[in-house]
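Researcher: I'd like a candidate sequence for this fold, 176 residues long. If you have to choose between options at a position, lean toward the conservative one.
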């Protein structure tokens, strides 16, 4: 947790015994681009979390989880998205399994290439990175689109069920 000045507030953490290097190597660890190589206070001393110090949109809880600023009052040029088009974009987005060139052969990842993501969804600062905010937004839009499709199918099923019941009733009357 952070106070109003964005300074960390001491809390009990399950991972506070980890060094910053161990924390960064945990599943879900992240890296940040920071040409100035600024040092950021971490659990034990400083953490060279590249780019974090000047990122006004990202906050780290003491347990290492990320929070992205999403307050409506810091946003502008807000526009609705076509959730059905997002769902179609996901259907056309190549998803592959791969490894980073500098990783061990046994480590695999699954996901899209940033270039494909940027080309299909036209969001983010670069076609070399997928911003977590954008990935989350695309996933939530797709969930909304699927919900809309299910609602439409439920209406159609109910209508067809009603028609079938009426046809059965008419056949029963004719057969008597």
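Model: Candidate sequence:
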């Amino acid at each position: 947790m952070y106070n109003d000045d964005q300074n960390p507030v001491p809390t009990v953490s399950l991972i506070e015994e980890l060094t910053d290097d161990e924390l960064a190597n945990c599943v879900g660890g992240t890296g940040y681009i920071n040409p100035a190589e600024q040092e950021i206070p971490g659990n034990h001393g400083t953490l060279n979390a590249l780019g974090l110090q000047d990122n006004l949109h990202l906050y780290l809880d003491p347990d290492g989880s990320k929070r992205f600023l999403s307050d409506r009052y810091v946003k502008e040029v807000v526009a609705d998205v076509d959730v059905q088009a997002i769902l179609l974009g996901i259907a056309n987005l190549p998803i592959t399994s791969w490894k980073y060139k500098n990783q061990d052969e046994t480590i695999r990842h699954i996901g899209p290439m940033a270039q494909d993501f940027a080309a299909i969804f036209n969001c983010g600062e670069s076609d070399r990175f997928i911003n977590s905010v954008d990935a989350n937004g695309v996933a939530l839009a797709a969930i909304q689109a699927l919900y809309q499709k299910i609602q439409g199918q439920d209406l159609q099923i109910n209508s067809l069920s009603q028609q079938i019941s009426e046809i059965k009733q008419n056949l029963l009357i004719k057969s008597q």
